[in-house]
TrEMBL record:
Record EC number: 2.3.3.13
Keywords noted in UniProt: Acyltransferase, Amino-acid biosynthesis, Branched-chain amino acid biosynthesis, Leucine biosynthesis, Manganese, Metal-binding, Transferase
SMART domains attached to this UniProt entry: LeuA_dimer
Family assignment from sequence similarity: Belongs to the alpha-IPM synthase/homocitrate synthase family. LeuA type 1 subfamily.
Enzyme class label: transferase
Tagged with keyword Heme: no
Protein's name in the database: 2-isopropylmalate synthase
Domain named Pyruvate carboxyltransferase: residues: 4-266
Classification lineage: Bacteria, Bacillati, Bacillota, Bacilli, Bacillales
Pfam families assigned: HCS_D2, HMGL-like, LeuA_dimer
Organism: Paenibacillus solisilvae
Pathways per UniProt: Amino-acid biosynthesis; L-leucine biosynthesis; L-leucine from 3-methyl-2-oxobutanoate: step 1/4
GO molecular function: 2-isopropylmalate synthase activity
Length: 513
């Protein structure tokens, strides 16, 4: 298997995405996670761009000894000097220099001739070579440049000491066959081209970044430049998780492998999404909410019998919580029965038929039926309260200059007693959560909240999804309401109920054994 080195530029090219700016301390935290993920190379920023970026690159260089650190620079002495200083303490480092190679960029952006650009490339690679052994050179916009000129530029920088040649598809313009052929021709025709490492840097403007990166591997590239969640300018860069899992899933066909620790993929994705305030699309491959969820009754039935019927990857191997069954109007009785059994709720055939009838009506209303709503439907059909705790009432007092105060009334299933708790917080949700945690002392730690608008206008309904963690297990509650604070509270109680019911079900199964 050919070993593909993963070059992560989330903290440099990814951060250039509008609105994705990171504070230096956020960059350092993400860099640590990238090292834990197993990336080979990290490009932590653009040292010349700001004192904050310089400080982040410097700290990451000093702290991470098991990855190679890249100093990014335009083909200018001032950039190179800053990159060299920022990465001076790195155990392993390289310079990454770039300059435009396409006529349109040279004519209108640089306003320089081909000869002038070639001379700058030669001089700056030679200048950088004084400080570091490894120099990566990128003829920017190579996929739209004249092939002969790209080859001439590559020959020139190799002669001056460049050791890694990156052929970027800067505008996401290339087709896979074109991109593969470019690597083959440059490797073959450029003098010294067979003595250097080749890298690919693909943007996703036409949705081809992963396909083009795989094409580059076929063409001889052994390094691929990626970002977590495919973040980056315009439509983004080649997605780390998509590329890695394509290689892993089709390893024998591609003939390559990476050193990525798959179990860290999901946590890395979530960390970057939160830090950059960039939500992940529901249908995003690998890490999207729907990537391993199935509503179709046919698919659900197959999955419950054998996961491989409708999944080509194991989400849990990537650290993704197992929640493959999503209940909606296309779901069948088998999936509903299975989900209720997970919470220790057994139904007779007549009761299941009644739950299914209620379920279909609710699915038409809500589109997706969350677990807490399904448990409520089962309670109605069996005339038994299955939820350990029920949110009876909620009141929140909020203002501009005061702490938010909340009051929550909770009913406990076994005793049927109702208790009221009060709490405070800097925000209304925090105040509500403090109340619920008093009512449910065994509640898991509040981990995450997602809010989604399901309609428009003043009466829009919001969907709240709350994740909690208890004993290293993750539980999710979902609720829909016009009042998003109430929806979040119901979702939190629902997640806590799932935690308790799952624990009770596990105990019963153990006792049965």
């Amino acid at each position: 298997m050919k070993r593909i080195r993963i070059f992560d530029t989330t903290l440099r090219d990814g951060e250039q995405s509008p609105g994705a700016t990171l504070a230096p301390e956020q960059k350092i935290i993400i860099a640590r996670q990238l090292a834990k993920l197993g990336v080979d190379i990290i490009e932590p920023g653009f040292a010349i761009s700001s004192p904050g970026d310089f400080a982040a690159v410097q700290q990451i260089s000093r702290e991470l000894n098991n990855v190679e650190i890249v100093g990014f620079a335009r083909a200018m002495k001032i950039d190179i000097d800053a990159a060299v200083r920022a990465t001076a303490d790195a155990a392993k480092r390289r310079l990454h220099l770039f300059i435009s190679s396409s006529d349109i960029q040279m004519d209108f952006q640089l306003k320089k001739s081909r000869e002038q650009v070639l001379q700058i490339a030669r001089e700056m690679v030679a200048y950088g070579k004084q400080f570091v052994n490894e120099i990566e050179f990128s003829p920017m916009d190579a996929s739209r440049a004249g092939r002969e000129f790209v080859i001439e530029m590559v020959e020139a920088v190799i002669a001056e000491g460049a050791t890694i040649i990156n052929l970027p598809d800067t505008l996401g313009y290339a087709m896979p066959d074109e991109y593969e052929e470019m690597f083959r021709s440059v490797r073959k025709q450029a003098r010294g081209g067979d003595k250097v490492i080749y890298s690919a840097h693909c943007h996703n403007d036409l949705g081809l970044a992963v396909a083009n990166s795989l094409a580059a591997i076929r063409g001889g590239a052994t390094q691929i430049e990626v970002t977590v969640n495919g973040i980056g300018e315009r439509a983004g860069n080649c997605s780390l998780e998509e590329l890695v899992m394509a290689i892993e899933t089709r390893k024998s066909a591609i003939g390559a492998e990476t050193g990525i620790v798959m179990s860290e993929i999901y946590e890395t994705s979530r960390m970057v999404s939160r830090a950059m305030n960039f939500p992940i699309a529901f249908n995003k491959p690998i890490v999207g909410r729907n990537a391993f969820q199935h509503e179709s009754g046919i698919h659900q039935d197959g999955l419950l019998k054998n996961r491989n019927t409708y999944e080509i990857m194991d989400p849990e191997a990537m650290g993704i919580p197992r929640s493959m069954i999503v209940l909606g109007k296309h779901s069948g009785r088998h999936a509903i029965k299975h989900r209720l059994n997970e919470f220790g709720i057994s139904l007779s055939d007549d009761q299941l038929a009644d739950v299914y009838t209620r379920f279909i009506a609710k699915a038409d209303e809500l589109k997706l039926v969350p677990d807490n709503e399904l448990i409520r439907l089962a309670s109605e059909s069996t005339d038994t309260q299955h939820d350990p705790f029920t949110l009876v009432d909620l009141t929140v007092l909020a203002g501009t200059n005061k702490s938010r105060i909340a009051s929550v009334t909770i009913r406990e299933r076994d005793s049927q007693e109702e208790s009221t708790f009060t709490g405070m917080g800097t925000g209304p949700l925090e105040a509500v959560i403090h109340c619920i945690q008093q009512a449910i002392p065994t509640a898991g730690a509040f981990e995450d909240l997602e809010l989604h608008s399901l309609s428009t206008g003043e009466d829009a309904r919001g969907e709240a999804i709350v994740s909690i963690v208890h004993n290293n297990q993750r539980y999710r509650g979902t609720a829909i309401h016009n009042d998003i604070i109430l929806a979040a509270a119901q979702a939190y109680v629902g997640a806590c109920n799932q935690q308790i019911l799952s624990g009770q079900s596990a105990v019963k199964k153990h006792e049965a054994i």
